[in-house]
């Protein structure tokens, strides 16, 4: 899919942040731990990652009823099974989370190999470690990962902090027989959302400190639940940054402010003086003072800091700052492929090496033809196209649509004139 623009856009109006991609796809997998009906609210149904996962789950035999008007999804996983699956090619990373529901019912699962963005080393060895620690046998076959056994409580001690591993361990341990202790867990706001949902279904989960989780397994499936997905903190940051540099007035609603305090501190330190209330952010031209945006240096890391998924938006913001900014990414140092494409809008302003991006601002963005490399990089390129003088084109924008619910509709409502074509 391609995005084409003819000139810079000034965004005006209000936009509501959708349910978080990194919560919704995990909670969806966890909803399969029940034979009862589960209702998910504030669910981002138009995300490409969600569409792919819904299609695969339907092919597994689950009953799904979606309502676009109310952004609700009803899930009934009673007949869930991998037995009817013939195509295991799934373009998302969270395939491993589908194992828990099948293991609890049948004692075996055929897990598609993870897909998703290619931004460095993101293997699945820690998921194999989880399944083995909980009593299963694992075999890596050409088309899928075979996991066999009845889940039993165990000790899981992650060698590194891992979001995906923590999520997989929680989902499997919730339906295992016996107690499970998870050490060095990485508890992000989205993982907190998953824990809250599992508790709503009847799971017994206790969090001690920031990285130790104790789970008392049910030894079987969980109950029904109605649950609302948390707002997407990465989408919220995207709108705040884009609103700040577009020259218009933007009200960003449904912002999870309590989950993004450190990123917002960095924005204020860079000279953005925006107004907030309990769940909204107001952006306008007066948010940037007479001295303009200030250059900055920051490093991405674990929550509550600036996470790697936010890296490209601080790079984009730095293009408008008065001086040299440096953004380090120690978590995913190879997350720099998009910089070459973004630089087409800002010649001579960007330099990238593994783990470090240098930005020399301020610069006036010019129209360019760029190609998407990953989800967040694609969105940064779209933002550049919307702020560039002259015609622009961004290819492969379906990558951005993997993480931004109803993006074309939201942009149109803010006055953006753009053409989205296949």
Could you explain how this protein is built, in words?
The protein is of the alpha+beta class and 422 residues long. The chain has 2 domains: 2-18 and 231-421, UDP-n-acetylglucosamine1-carboxyvinyl-transferase, Chain (Alpha-beta prism), CATH 3.65.10; 21-228, Enolpyruvate transferase domain (UDP-n-acetylglucosamine1-carboxyvinyl-transferase, Chain), CATH 3.65.10. It is 30% helix and 24% strand. The chain is built from 13 helices and 23 strands. The protein has helices at 21-30, 48-59, 99-106, 125-133, 163-175, 189-200, 233-246, 261-269, 311-318, 337-342, 375-387, 398-401, 407-413; strands spanning 2-5, 13-16, 37-41, 63-67, 72-76, 108-112, 137-140, 144-148, 155-157, 177-183, 204-208, 212-218, 225-228, 250-253, 275-276, 280-283, 297-300, 324-329, 350-353, 356-360, 369-371, 392-395, 419-421. The strands form 6 sheets. Strands 21-22-1-23 form a 4-stranded mixed sheet. Strands 2-14-16-15 form a 4-stranded mixed sheet, covered by helices on one side. Helix 9 links the parallel strand 17 (297-300) and strand 18. Helix 4 (125-133) runs parallel beside helix 5 (163-175), helix 7 (233-246) packs parallel to helix 9 and helix 7 runs parallel beside helix 11 (375-387). The chain is globular, with a radius of gyration of 22 Å. Residues 116-122 have low confidence and may be disordered.
Number of helices, counting only DSSP H or I runs of 4 residues or more: 13
- Pairing-aware structural class of the strands and helices? alpha+beta
Count of the domains: 2
Arithmetic mean of pLDDT = 95
Output the CATH class name of the largest domain.
Alpha Beta
| Lateral arrangement of strands in the main beta sheet | 21-22-1-23
User: What share of the residues does DSSP label as strand, in percent?
Assistant: 15-25%
Largest sheet: 4 strands, mixed
What's the architecture of the largest domain in CATH terms?
Alpha-beta prism
What name does CATH use for the topology of the largest domain? UDP-n-acetylglucosamine1-carboxyvinyl-transferase, Chain
Q: What is the gyration radius calculated from CA atoms?
A: 22 Å
Contiguous uncertain segments of 5+ residues: 116-122
Overall form: globular
Distance between the termini: 4 Å
Strand tally is 23
Enzyme class: transferase
Domain Enolpyruvate transferase: 9-411
EC number: 2.5.1.7
Catalytic activity: phosphoenolpyruvate + UDP-N-acetyl-alpha-D-glucosamine = UDP-N-acetyl-3-O-(1-carboxyvinyl)-alpha-D-glucosamine + phosphate
